[in-house]
Amino acid sequence: MSFIKVDAKSDFSFHNLPYGVFSTPDNPRHRIGVAIGDQILDLSVMKPLFRGPILSKYQHVFDQPTLNAFMGLGYEAWREARRTLQVLLSASEGTLRDDVSLRTRAFVHQSTATMYLPAEIGDYTDFYSSRDHATNVGIMFRGKENALMPNWLRLPVGYHGRASSVVVSGTPIRRPSGQMRPDPTNPPVFGPSKQLDIELEMAFFVGGGNRLGEPIPIERAHEHIFGMVLMNDWSARDIQAWEYVPLGPFLGKNFGTTISPWVVPMEALLPFVEPNIVQEPEPLPYLRHDDAYTFNINLFVSLKGEGMAEAATICKSNFKYMYWTMKQQLAHHTVNGCNVRPGDLLASGTISGPDPESFGSMLELSWRGSKSIDLGAGETRTFLKDGDDVSITGYCEGAGYRVGFGACTGTILPALQH
């Protein structure tokens, strides 16, 4: 399919072509690239070759240090860019393949590149859209009879997170300190979190946007969804448990959120679409859509502690378990007239499936610390220790190829002394 050789197990096949922002030692300028195999195609070099009816007038967007301007061009521009890239990288097209000088300037080996946040994130919203996860947490804190709150099956529950602490994969995460109340019979105490957790999530970047006061109808929501990344929404469960009533997460969440650097375009994921989960009761009309917008994305979480010879896989899950779709999340987010902007990040919430191995948080895997998570060779966890390295990976599996996301990693640093 492409003149670039790509291993069948590579996340970055010709069918993928995700966007990211990178620099190299010989050129520290942040610039936009597309991953294919173990290479990055530098779009700041390739911009004169985007000659379609839309992008011929906006080639400058590929010379920017973030993807925001490109995201802002909208759905048809993204489709045009993808078609152009598929032609330029195909085995039958000689423009790039046969131009040795252009290829030398345009391609960078991924191992030499430093990756950055793909966009300037103006706002970040975290949803709570996995029924299995919401049920598990509800059982822990409220009992089986009241596991789901009355609104959960009626709307995509969410909250506004902190955009300033969203970081790119590989950035260390400092253990947070805060107020906790481990003993409900005594006053709260202050100190480092003892129940630091991961959350297996995915997120999508908004493109296009809408004007203040004008909702995005669900029939057109897909035109505002640019692409997806992996996410680890680190959580301090003991801080969160004390603070979250009545207004929800705050310091237990806003100390760090990690995303993968490569944004996989929705067109690359469409071959892996699956029927939506049947929703009972039927949502209100503004949340209904019949077209499939659930995706079969295999997801994995591994943990490697200090002294461990190799990482242990602690979770195997799938994005297809989500109850509320991304289209529903975006339609609900804007139904009141809230405006979203290119580069805004909307996250799925923890992705858990029906089986214990598919639980997307240590809170669930250890069932609130009541049982140990076996990492092998005598290592166990209930929550994270200092020095633990966590990696989230994910991919769609095609016939002899993958559409993957790379890695979303972070290492826990000790809390600062107060």
Global geometry: globular
Largest sheet: 8 strands, mixed
Helix vs. strand class = alpha+beta
User: Based on DSSP secondary structure assignment, what is the total number of beta strands?
Assistant: 26
Q: Give the uncertain stretches in residue-range form.
A: none
Q: How would you state the average pLDDT, rounded?
A: 97
User: What's the gyration radius in Å?
Assistant: 22 Å
Strand coverage percent: 25-35%
Distance between the termini: 57 Å
Tally of separate helices: 10
Can you walk me through this structure?
- By secondary structure, the chain is an alpha+beta fold.
- The protein is 17% helix and 28% strand.
- It has helices spanning 43-46, 68-72, 75-89, 94-97, 100-106, 131-142, 237-243, 266-269, 326-334, 362-365; strands at 19-24, 27-36, 39-42, 107-109, 114-116, 124-127, 158-160, 166-168, 173-174, 177-180, 189-192, 196-197, 200-206, 225-232, 235-236, 257-259, 264-265, 273-274, 294-295, 298-304, 312-318, 345-347, 373-376, 379-381, 389-397, 402-413.
- The strands form seven sheets. Strands 6, 7, 8, 13, 14, 16, 17 and 22 form an eight-stranded mixed sheet that branches. A five-stranded antiparallel sheet has the order 4-3-2-1-5. The chain has a five-stranded mixed sheet with strand order 9-26-25-20-21, with no helix packed on it.
- A hairpin with a 7-residue loop joins strand 20 (298-304) and strand 21 (312-318).
- The protein is globular.
- 46% of the residues are buried.
- The mean pLDDT is 97.
